[in-house]
Each structure stands twice: as C-alpha cells, then as structure tokens.
Design brief:
It is globular and about 45 Å long. It has a single domain, classed as 3-Layer(aba) Sandwich (NADH Oxidase). It has 181 residues and is of the alpha+beta class. The strands form 2 sheets. Strands 5-4-3-6-8-7 form a 6-stranded antiparallel β-sheet. Helices cover 25% and strands 25% of the residues.
Length: 181
Amino acid sequence: MAALWERKTIRTISSRPLPPQTLSNLLWAAFGVNRDQMPDGRPGRTAASATNAQEIDLYVALPGGVYLYEAVPHRLAPVAAGDFRASAGQDGVDKAPVNLFFVADPTRFKRKGPAGAGATDAEKSFYNVDTGLIAQNVHLFAASQGLAAWFHTCDQEKTPELFRLRPEQRVLFAQSVGYPE
C-alpha cells in the first residue's frame, strides 16, 4: 500500500547511477519472470500481457550503451555501444542514469487472419495497454525504493535505427528512472 501512496511522476532526475542490484530489481519488477510456466508454455511475467503475447521488449539505455532486457535469463544483452539516453526525447532525460524504451513486436500475436497481415487495431491497443502495465510496475518499484520515474514520449523516428530494430518492431514510449534531484 505504501508504494501506491508514494507513486508519483518526478521529472527532475539526478545523473547519479543506480547500483547494479537496484537496476536488476527494477527490470525484474517491470517485466521479469515470476512463474516458470503458464498453460501456453511461456513463463509468467510480473505484468500481464494480452493473450500472454509478451510482445513488449524493454530496451535499456545506460551511459555506456543500449541493452535488451532478456527476462528469461534475467540479463542485459548488448545492442549498441554509446550514450543513446537522449533518444528518450524529453529535456533533461539525457542525464537520467536509466532510460527504458518500450518496443512492441506485433509478430508475437497469434493471428487468425491471413499470414503477414499487419497489426490489427485490437493488437495496437493491446500493446499500448501492456506498456502501461509495465510502466506502472516501474513507477511502483521506484516509489518503493525512493527513486524518481517519468513515463513519456520518445523519438520514434530515430530510435529504431539506433537500436537496430527490425522493420515490424514499434517504438512506443520511454520511461526515465533514477534518483530524484
């Protein structure tokens, strides 16, 4: 209950780095594995996803590079070296120690229509809602740890190339996390 009372958006974030264990806990709280296997064979996650598609990937921009959060082994896989935090697209977020990028992969939905069909309106609403569920977990974790969190838009045009995304992947939003200034 305390985390719900303390949950708030804080837009002034210090550049002070998060300890590795805090970053690890943040990512697990966001969309980590909390059950070994669901009826469909996939692991259960800390945030629900429509039809258990688990179509949202978390890309983590740190001062030294961008990483993909791989939930099953609970690790960060390197994507690109360099400081891409400014891709979060809002004033001041380039100094936040952690910028999370929410990227949808619509190919994970099991479609009943013709093969290769684009994302349906329902799927688009699913991945926006699923992003909100994950972002709320981030906010609640931040509140429980005395951290600042800010959910916001990002540069959806440049980010796919910087993060080496496939054409079907969609950059949705970003969330900056760190210590309050």
